[in-house]
Amino acid sequence: MLQIIYRLPFLWIASLILVLAQPTLCQAKMVSVELVWNLGQAGWVQIDIEKGDYQLSMDTVTRKFPAGSTLQVGWGGWTPVLRINHEEFQIFSGSVLEIKGINSGSLRVKTPEGKEAAYRGGLQLNWQDGHWRLVNQVDSEDYLKGVVPIEMSNEWAKGGSEALKAQAVAARTYLVKQTDNGSKMITDSPDIHQAYAGMSVEGEASKAIEATRGEIIVDAQTEQPIDALYSSHSGGYAEDAKNVWGNTDIHNVSHPDPYSQGVGGAVNYWRFIVSAPLLGSKFGLGPVRDVKLDKFPSGRVKSVKLEDEFGQTATVKGRAFVQAFYPFGQPIRKEAFLGSFFEAQAVVKSDSHGISDSAGLFGSFGYSGFLELARPNQQEQGPLLSKVLSSSLGTSAAPQPFGVFIFEGRGWGHGVGMSQWGAYHMAQLGYKYQEIIAYYYNHVSISKG
């Protein structure tokens, strides 16, 4: 609470600076977004024109492509083929197909695997290395309508609209920074750039984009766009950019973030359990007997030193350690390893009787699936953990004579810049988006076109 009170004057002064900053022009423009998140390496694709008027360009040939038109592209014997409006398939001898928008509309992309999404703007299809490369060409403000709802949530408009506005400004700034650096294209992947899902996720967040149209975050002195970084949940402490990527950034510095405490459900507090043998096998060791953490001032783990039962050691960078257990492609839950803000605790073996949970660590956290393990005698207190593999893999048929390790953590993501859950909490407390931006980014102002 003292931290919150301490920062309130700063928020008021910083927000005043943001409001009084001299506006500069940030025009909407067309951007090219490569669709790699769900449509990368596509072999067969169908594009349906849902609304508007388009034209289909195939090298030197152009034809009208109005609403109701369909294009199917695929390959046969490593040769690209296409079919227009359910006509006969034909071999495509060129390398680029382009569906250009004449009037505003929308098109839907489908794959045989059941993946589909609707997009504004046009679509370019390139045949490369035995697959189709899809690029959505869309107005930058329309692009944001497919970013903000999936980076945050349309549901946050109820009581958290100022957070959506802050996200819109940050996402717009990120886009400007990426494209102004000479890159002509970004991707729709959150692992590479920022998440983008087209029209399929549009909703209440569009109002936040319209309300902040053209606004970006710039350096207070140079008025150049900053790296407006953000992640889901800071765990209660924003990280310094140099501790994650090695580059000093005066706009993204470490500081306490009490607004991210107590919110976020599973990402606010999580616990991951793994057996000593499985932990060691991930890093070329035998069953681990000791874990030592080297931390940054924020509390995030810089590196992990592991020692196994044979005296062998390995030191792993914090991010690499997280990636070894991160639940890629799985729903986020509190029994997962979600970030580098964590503590480690060993539960050692109990003589000849295996490993017991006398403290009730599993039961209190909902690991009911681990509580059915047989006990060697009735006097053993608590369920045995000797059959546990990990929180994600469950148990094995045979027990192991070594311990298990419990990793308890906070937050989700790299923690640099704006915490999305923290921004949402601030909005719920009545802060405006300018104040949210001033809190999470250092030495900035907002430019408005």
Automatic annotation (TrEMBL):
It comes from the Bacteria. One of its GO terms (biological process) is sporulation resulting in formation of a cellular spore. InterPro entries: Bact_Sporulation_Assoc, SpoIID/LytB, SpoIID/LytB_N. Residues 129-217 form the Sporulation stage II protein D amidase enhancer LytB N-terminal domain. GO terms for cellular component: outer membrane-bounded periplasmic space. It holds the Pfam family SpoIID. NCBIfam families: SpoIID_LytB (TIGR02669). This is Stage II sporulation protein D. The lineage of its organism: Bacteria, Bacillati, Bacillota, Clostridia, Eubacteriales.
